[in-house]
Amino acid sequence: MRTRTLSPTEAKVILSLEAEGREELTLDGIRRRSEVSQGFARKIAHELVKKGWLQRLGRGRYLLNPSRHGPDAIPDSDPFRFGSRIVSPYYFGFATAAELLGLLPQASSTYYVVTPKRGSTRWLHAAQYRRITVRPDRFFGVSRLERRGETLRVSNPERTVLDCLARPEFSGGLGGVVKVLESAGPTLDWPRLERYHRRLGSRSLTFRLGYLLEVHTSTARPPPGWLDRARPRAHEPYVPLGGPTEFGRRGPHDRRWHLIHNVPEALLRAEVDLR
After folding, report:
1. What is the largest distance, in Å, between two alpha-carbon atoms of the chain?
2. What's the pLDDT score for residue 186?
3. Rounded to 5, what percent of the chain is helix, strand, coil?
4. Domain boundaries, the chain
């Protein structure tokens, strides 16, 4: 195993960063700390990445692998520590939030990072992190979660339920959404869920949520009147339960929830043992 080493100039950069209690660094920060030209600062950054002291977060941005991680040149293996610094503001959402909150049992190979900040969708480690951009007025429902000494921003249970329902493909499919609802059901804050739901303003989301709560979950029990308020009005159109691209637009019509049942029942029940 290769041991991390530092030249005197590199030590000046790393030690000053640790003395300040900072873990993020820019190329300009390297230049100032080492008192060299911008071109030489790039060379220092390249060497520090190569030696395992820094990881690239993005263009001209780096994350420290501090000395407490040990002497070996092994990149930081915590995807949440890295992912929490890719963009700001952010929150971990969809399947990632569901896993962090204990609503889904298995870890996904993709970490979903939600942000209102526009920019390139091509990130480093693109196979591991997926950027989901939302409008600023839809960036809400965020809580803080402590994990292994790191403070992470994560969608709260109510926002996680709605996000997963809105984009099942980022949440283990509709079977995963049912599992999230079943797991979150006993502790959901129903007034908060309804406020969030109204802010998102999607009636198709309303119909899917009402149907899944009424038919496919046994632990999620809305307060009296909640489902009646969610039900469609006579003039509102029918919407497919699952994404038309994946499941098509054909299937039996549910008059109570104005849904087209284009998803096999076995798929909806795949992740949950109904009681």
Report:
1. 75
2. 92
3. 40, 15, 40
4. 8-76, 81-268
Query: What CATH number has the domain spanning 8-76?
Result: 1.10.10.10
Q: In the block, which residue shows the tokens 């920060």?
A: 29
CB 193 within 8 A of CB 158: yes
Given a cut of 80, whether residue 74 has pLDDT beyond it is no
- CA pseudo-torsion sign 210, 110, 145, 58: negative
Q: pLDDT tens for residues 186-220? A: 999 999 999 999 999 999 999 999 999 998 888 88
pLDDT tens readout for residues 40-70: 999 998 989 888 888 888 888 998 888 777 6
- Give the residue ranges of DSSP H helices in 58-130: 79-83, 94-100
- DSSP letter at 167 equals -
Three-state SS at 127: coil
Q: How many H-runs (helices) and E-runs (strands) does the chain carry? A: 12, 11
Tokens of 185: 């059901």
Cα–Cα distance for residue pair 38/27, rounded to 1 Å:
8
* Least reliable range by pLDDT among 23-37, 76-90, 107-121, 225-239: 107-121
d(CA 171, CA 94): 5
% the chain with pLDDT above 70: 91
Concatenating the DSSP letter of every residue in 20-72 gives TT--EEEHHHHHHHHT--HHHHHHHHHHHHHTTSEEEEETTEEEE--GGG-SB
